[in-house]
């Protein structure tokens, strides 16, 4: 089974759901406005940083 995209409440995005949305949204904007979004490697350090394990995300059941 893959990683959850939304929390148990069905409303809030999990970290991986937010990252997937950012990739999709960047691609859509790039196609519409003619620019190349930043490569995921440029923000991978932030996207996988220590903040993703913060206890504030625990209640969402994203693990």
What does this 3D model show about the protein?
The structure is a single chain. With 63 residues, the protein is mostly helical. The relative contact order is 0.20. The chain is flat and about 40 Å long. The chain is 43% helix and 0% strand.
Q: Any chance you could write out the topology, listing elements then pairs?
A:
Layout: H1 15-33, H2 40-47
Summarize the structure.
The protein is mostly helical. The protein has helices at residues 15-33, 40-47.
Radius of gyration: 13 Å
Query: Structural class of the secondary structure composition?
Result: mainly alpha
Q: Biggest sheet: strands, sense, closure?
A: none
Order of H and E elements: HH
Averaged pLDDT: 79
What is the 3D shape? flat
- Count of discrete alpha- or pi-helical segments spanning 4 or more residues: 2
Low-confidence segments, ≥5 residues, pLDDT <50?
none
- Total strand count, please? 0
Question: How much helicity do the residues have?
Answer: 40-55%
User: What share of residues are in beta strands?
Assistant: under 5%
End-to-end distance: 12 Å
Which features would summarize this protein structure in a list?
63 residues, mainly alpha, 43% helix, 0% strand
